[in-house]
Amino acid sequence: MSKLARPRLLILGCGDVGMRMLPLLRGRFRIFAVTSQAARSDELRAAGAVPIVADLDQPATLARLARLARYIVHLAPPQPDGLRDCRTRNLTAILPDATTLVYVSTTGVYGDCGGALIDETRRPNPRNARALRRVDAEATLRAWARRSGSRLSILRVPGIYAADRLPVERLQKGTPALAPQDDVYTNHIHADDLARIIVAALYRGSPCRAYHAVDDSHMKMGEYFDAVADAFGLPHPSRLPRGELEQTVSPVLLSFMSESRRLSNTRLKTELGVRLRYAQVDDALAQVGQIARAGNFVPD
């Protein structure tokens, strides 16, 4: 199939995960990538995408996106304040009918679950403005999909990691972690696996269906930090009771330490047919550790 005859795909928020997606998609689609930074145009073009300079905060710049593509991957985060995702609302105002859209949301929509194992039927219960904006985005997109006859898949994503996306600097600074009795469960997905999950959702996602884009590991946050420290030969972080830790870490970091949940990925595997390349965090860290010990990897 010639390049011009391929179906068109639009990526909004083509950062690290978007760039990992491009090699998986450029032979199947003619890809357009939206960026608000004109300086990124050459980088996107070299990776196989047609760059489009537009800004989801500026509705007047979005007119050229209308009816541009029938396949859309929405990776753009909400604006950093407020309780509504104005960027997603601006986007849905110009989207065509009968579109396939994959939205990358966050597992933070569930709030604190007390460490319980949950699936996608769990009702969202956001506890901060950041998560409220994501819930608003999901609701806005569901309403648009039903109204327009479009196929929407929502991927709820936890902490994304990769060899260059690990908390090494945090460990080097000696930032403490929670004491075991106060620690919380966290969830993870490798950036390469997330890119593959998005591609699977484009083809196999069911209409208005949510999926947990998470791996198989059920780790507490301190255990994760210890595992990364071991991979790089760094000391484990000290552990403090919650009351003491609240006096030493930022409010943003503390908010992540205040929610505990474990997420089932059964729907991801059975409905999207995803086979994770890095099913456990330890699988990826073993590779990173080998490279680090050989002196061929220096963390940012």
UniProtKB/TrEMBL annotation:
GO cellular component: cytoplasm
GO MF, one annotated term: aldehyde dehydrogenase (NAD+) activity
Domain RmlD-like substrate binding: 99-270
InterPro entries in alphabetical order: NAD(P)-bd_dom_sf, NAD(P)-dependent_oxidoreduct, RmlD-like-bd
Classification via Pfam families: RmlD_sub_bind (PF04321)
Top-level taxon: Bacteria
Protein name, as recorded: NAD-dependent dehydratase
Native source organism of the sequence: Noviherbaspirillum autotrophicum
